[in-house]
User: Fold this.
Amino acid sequence: MWIFLHDVYMVGLINNSQEFIKGMKKLSNSELELQSATLRLKLLKYIKMANAGHTGGDLSCMDILNVLYHDVLNIPGNNLKDPERDRYIQSKGHSVEALYVVLASRGFFPEKDLESLGRYRSHYVGHPTRKVNGIEFNTGALGHGLSISAGIALAGKMDSRNYRVFTLLGDGELAEGSNWEAAMFASHYKLDNLVAILDHNTLQITGRNCDVCNPGPIDEKFRSFGWHVVTTDGHNIAELRKIFQQVPFRRDKPALIIANTIKGKGVSFMENITKWHHGVPDDEQYEKAVRELDKEIEKIKYSSTYAGD
Amino acid sequence: MQVTEKLIAGKRNLEIYSETLIELAKNDPNILAVTGDSRGSAKLVDFGKQFPGQIIEVGIAEQNLVGVSAGLASAGKVVFATSPSCFLTARALEQIKNDVAYSDYPVNLVGISAGVSYGALGSTHHSLHDIAAIRAIHNIVIVVPADNFETRMAVRAAAASDKPFFLRFGKRPLPHLHYPEDDFEIGRASVICEGTDIAFIACGEAVAPAFGAARLLHDKGISARVISMHTVRPLDNDSVIRAATECGAMITVEEHSISGGLGEACAAVIMEAGLRLPFKRIGFPDEYTVTGSQADIFNHYGISGKDLAMAAADLLQKTVAGTT
Assistant:
């Protein structure tokens, strides 16, 4: 009986992702790639305007967020009061600028609002808050998202709801011990509706993770805590979509997707350079970055036309 | 009540917490107790037996306890996150600040065995900082009940509220300081007995000794008002100002550090109202406490009926000396 019920439940979890597709226009891989490049452009625009932002990490998680919000998360009518909605908790809250442009692109608020980013009395703060439509929790202090997400996932299990809970962690963030408390808890309670995504760009503010306080081997650590672990290229749209379609991965197991990413992805002179953690481009750098991204956009447009996509 | 009235022994506030939670859970499947290997000391074993699906064990992991509780509350659960106050409000302070208060989810944080309830276990297990720490964080109602009645009412109020609460309970059985038909309102102090020579403003387990002092003072012809300031935030400013206006002196009494607690909160209200009166804070000074049982420690730092009465007489004497 339990197995049967569980199968129904697992099918429910899968259905949640299919419902989303019903409600919104399904984008092709190249449309999503194009959107990622456009979102990167917008991100830089608003960071430049605010003269602040966590540029490197924003760029590394942009493809993940784009795929989540435009292919994965079932939030009917963008209504955060819908008890059946999928949840997204951004544990690495400092990459909020990427989240803002993605939320705007999904229609949670007008993109123009972001012109007030970081300004006096703006709701668009440098870390996520619930004053911004689309955001579920105020995050930014590291090591909080996994526990919160585990709590939401547990409530979903208790109430036999089909929603899934996604949370984005940074790799530097794994040094926070609270993550490991939550990891132990999530597997104990068999939270297979919980998916943590690691934005594994290997850099943090001081330098390489492995030099600061080595979090590795991350996959083995999570596996030994009872998690299902998969690894993917965090910038490959097709691969990310494929991975997310597999949620729930294994019955009774929370899942970690290790998304290998590049800090500063998409802007050549920012890629893999620690100082861009919260660097803001000067005018010349900004122009150069825009040119690069424009070129990338043209390239995607050309290849998708050529491919007949 | 009358200052001469004989006090009737009651139960531990923790037992009332558990009883009230059981009563609430009977009608509401969303009531959850979240515990950190602390259901025994929180007196929640019976709750767990009656509602096995409504108790969540997190293990010895306070940060996760509060984070998980916030997640549960965001999904509509009525969560009582229960752990010894010393750990809950120190280890998980950042989760309390961000996941609960700043994110504004109505988690009820229940600090058990607060103050020096753990007595001889020592300062690792004492929580003399918790009220100060929570007071400095916006958006948490703080309730420190003085007896079983206040506990029952506070737990019901917390369950019904859409705001975060911090409920602080001690371990020892307490006398009844209320009649069952008394009024109770969050944010409105309870006057336990009336008086005008001196006012004791106290909270939690320090209220009963203050009442004991009032009784001793009554025998000497001094009338003492005893106020149970069960809600430390939002503070009942009117009640403090009224006492400061109508009484000749004021003593605050709390099972907490004198820094950042009830006493300082009352002093600020009085100063900002432009009032002046002889005033003394009684609580724990800036030191790690002496070793002993809760009663030993209370006696050592003057939180007993006898010592509080002496402190009152002393303060009033000073007033007389100062005016002649």
In short: The interface with chain A takes residues 53, 56, 58-59, 61, 63-64, 66-77, 94-95, 98-99, 102-104 of chain B (CB under 8 Å).
